Automatic annotation (TrEMBL):
InterPro entries associated with the record: V-ATPase_116kDa_su, V-type_ATPase_116kDa_su_euka
GO biological process, one term: vacuolar acidification
A GO MF term: ATPase binding
Transmembrane stretches, start-end: 423-447, 468-485, 548-566, 578-601, 637-655, 756-777
Originating gene: LOC105054293
Name assigned to this protein: V-type proton ATPase subunit a
Lineage of origin: Eukaryota, Viridiplantae, Streptophyta, Embryophyta, Tracheophyta
Membrane topology classification: Multi-pass membrane protein
Species of the source: Elaeis guineensis var. tenera (Oil palm)
Subcellular localization(s) per the UniProt record: Membrane
Amino acid sequence: MAGGGHGCCPPMDLMRSEPMQLVQIIVPIESAHLTVSYLGDLGLLQFKDLNADKSPFQRTYANQIKRCGEMARKLRFFREQMTKAGISPSAMSLTQTHIDLDDLEIKLGELEAELIEVNTNSEKLQRTYNELLEYKLVLQKAGEFFYAAQSSATAQQREIEAQQVFDGSLDSPLLLEQESLADPSKQVKLGFVSGLVPKEKSMAFERILFRATRGNMYLKQVAVEDPVTDPVSGEKVAKNVFVVFYSGERAKTKILKICEAFGANRYPFTEDVGKQMQMIDEVSGKISELKTTIDVGLIHRDNILKNIGHQFEQWNHLVRREKSIYHTLNMLSLDVTKKCVVAEGWSPVFATSQVQDALKRATYDSNSQVGSIFQVLYTKESPPTYFQTNKFTSAFQEIVDAYGVAKYQEANPGVYTIITFPFLFAVMFGDWGHGICLLLVTMYFIFREKKLSSQKLGDITEMTFGGRYVIMMMGLFSIYAGLIYNEFFSVPFELFGKSAYACRDPSCSNATTVGLIKVRSTYPFGVDPKWYGSRSELPFLNSLKMKMSILLGVAQMNLGIVLSYFNAKFFKNNLNIWYQFVPQLIFLNSLFGYLSLLIIVKWCTGSKADLYHVMIYMFLSPTDDLGENQLFPGQKTLQLVLLFLALISVPWMLFPKPILLKKQHQERHQGQSYTLLQSTEESLELEQDHSSHGHEEFEFSEVFVHQLIHTIEFVLGAVSNTASYLRLWALSLAHSELSTVFYEKVLLLAWGFNNIIILIVGFIVFVFATVGVLLVMETLSAFLHALRLHWVEFQNKFYEGDGYKFSPFSFALLGEVED
């Protein structure tokens, strides 16, 4: 578990998980609720579910959980309403007043009913208000149309009468024919429908009307300048005011159905201009009254929500707390006859006194006449794993837990990961300029961690913030590695003094190792600046990084094997000590440990020996003379001894362990070793095998094949894992070369033009390339490769990672879990 330490806890021990114990607690039923509450405040007891065979609805406190769920629903409703109204809940007060759950349930019900009623009334009023606004628009726009049409018709009528021309038809927008004018008894009564239709549907609306009435209609549309709020959907919609003239009830029926299908809101309208003005005045008055009423309702609703917001966090915390308590009570075994509940769970040994104190306080505060009973149970069940961590170590522990949670009391790689992970990252990322950039970014998160921890961040930002201390260590180690590499954005500096080398003569502008001579003492720290650009068969710096990668890899793999010894010793598994740890250590160091020794000797002596030739012919021709490749006296004899040890270590790993396991199995069945067996990992494995298989014969072939697989995996893995560490060299080379390309081909190239605009553009490109490629992509790449080296090459030597986390019942964790 990656959680903060407790106030009464002993100092953190990350190497081994906390000693755990299975405890049983018998609590009187009248103090059960308060006991669970106090244990939740303590947060050091992981309850076991003693009712796993029952469904959630069959458990004792199902109704209480249902009530809490309903209250949680009401609180979510309040939160949604506050969010819509732009009201934020107040922070939970430190001086909280006690609230009874029953009283809170009644209060929440009343507030919900009141809020729903206010919202319903507000929605009705808002819909009426929006309808009146649309009605006013129809009265204004349609009134203008009717007035213009009547004026035009009157003018045309006067002109026709003056000319006494009756042989043509009168072109009137009111569709009046000549006959109807001449004979009022034949006048056709036209009806009309007015309203608003969405602007995006207006063309289709017109086409459908024309087809449905076979052209026996007249449509007039006018666009509304500003979008209007639709009364039905409540959304802003661009609309047109329309008037449709028709003749006959059948056409009217069709038009009404089309309006309904297109979502056109219809409103009544009169041709009388006087009545139109009167209706506009009435509608304007109603709009003003409704606006005032709506504002008062909104103020009332906001006051309700503000009152809720003052106590929302306290109510929400109480409901979540009570729900978690009843969930836990449902995991306990209820003994109705004895009026008590029985709980079982895992607790750290150091928390025994704290748990007992919580039980005593619960008994006293609940006025119970009977105290709780606390006792430790003995079991062969594997306990959960609990590491006490803080905000610095928790992220490193999460890196290990992502691979697998350590089994109980297994050696924890997280201790070494704190140093080795950022160090291996820095070997690949080494540049003290880039390291400073990483450090500055993570310092921002660290200095503002209190504020940022209470905010909701994006996924990537949240991930970066959670690993801020890992990134800080990565930045610090990158600065250290960059100083050793002498690289600042790929540029070497003479930070610790002048270079020890100089040109042999003024003509050696592009100096190589042949053209350089040593003129002063060795550069005091890191790589000499003159080594950049030096040439031999391989660039010296790249050769240095390659050999250093092998040294680091062999050292870390040896650490993994040593940790396997400590695991075996801790669990008293002597077979693993003598037939796994010892031969593995011999095999690895007979080959790759010897290679590491040759690298160091060659560096110290300055020899020109070919190490590839030495290692290859150590196997092909072990008895041949080394000649010029000899680095020290007795090297040939040492190679023969190491080769013999490497060859003998393979059957040493393969054969003895299965044979000894079979012997132990036979002794158990013959009853010869019952008095000798101790609580060891071997005896536990044999007991589990005995209990599960009864008196079946020992499957030697299965055990042997299993051991064979492990032997082959280690032998091949020793070679492949050592080669895998060369990624340290490869990524370091790639990072350095990319940085050099951006510096020389972008920044220096722009500088060479002697143009301020080109220089600014080049600098911007350089910054974006450095941030995007080197500080983001390369950081992620080096991080993933360092992760792989820890998970595969390092941890597979000793780490099983088949345990499970300690997950105590704790109210402190309620804020991390969403309903």
